[in-house]
Amino acid sequence: MSFGEREDELWGVLKPTFKPRVFGDPNLKYAERLLKQKRVGKDGGPLVGPRADARAVLARVVRKAPEVLVKVTGRKKGADHLGAHLAYIGRKCEIALETRDGELLTNKADVQQLAEEWSDPLYWRPRATVSAVSMVFSMPEGTDPETVKQSVRETAERMLGDNHDYLLALHTDTPRPHVHMTVEAEGMDGTRFDPRRADLFKFREAFAEGLRSRGVECEATPRWSRGQARAGTSMALAQMREKIRRGVSRQPTEADLRQAREALAIATGKAQAPAFVAQAKRRWTSIREQYEGAAARLDDSEDRRDKDLARELRSFLKDRPSIESVPDRVLKDAVDRVRIAREQQSKRQEGPKSPERKPPDKMR
Description:
12 helices, alpha+beta, BirA Bifunctional Protein, domain 2, Endonuclease_MobA/VirD2, Relaxase
């Protein structure tokens, strides 16, 4: 069975298409290729190999294959800022930093010299300029750390090529093996490395392809294609919440206080839910329709594997009748608190109930 044009519709659900920015984008050429759904190699040309089969991606989604994580963790300005970051990811030279050429940096002086070299071309600019962009690539617990590092290096070679220098640091001190990659912002040809949303998604795809080529089952799809709402949590906020959970800090974050106030206003009828919550629900409804249509077409196939995938897809949709966002969860808690508060207030207004008198026992 072949989906034909309908497979392209399903692909649009699984892999989004990004619109390129047209003003002030140093990655304009790259973004134009994204619009045409072409993968870019280090020489600026398309990568070898056809676009992934939508059916294979769908199978990994419904079977809950691990999702790769790629995010920008910061932009370092100046040699001092960059040097402090490199000291952090290198655990003060306890972890070797690998260069693009495979050289290992284990000496504090060498690391600081590299930070100054990356920042030197920018000293003449009137304002502080980004010297490097820090990124992190992560996989769930149980993934071989060396495989993760090799896949990150392959991703860097494919996406950056020889134009930008970079450093890699593998961390295994947490259950999730992850690699910190720091990229020199100023390229050899003068272009700036300034990854945006579309670029990060392509980094995820390249990272996932590198892992799958090494036998690690994984995928890189948007959260909404898996029936999950937006994460909406920055690394700084996640770290502050972790301090609260560990008891290091007792001060709630401003973001959590704001969410609680907004949810309480909605629960008491003084405000309405944010527009993006309703938009996410409408998007999931549209995606469900696409998935249901794909399941029907897979059922018409004579291939037993397609029929099995259709059954798994329907089970996947059954477990996700709706999409729950962070505001939804906060609102649910707020509604429960308002209900309990009103019940307690109602009991106080009624006052304590007088105990019932028992009739006296009859004398025999």
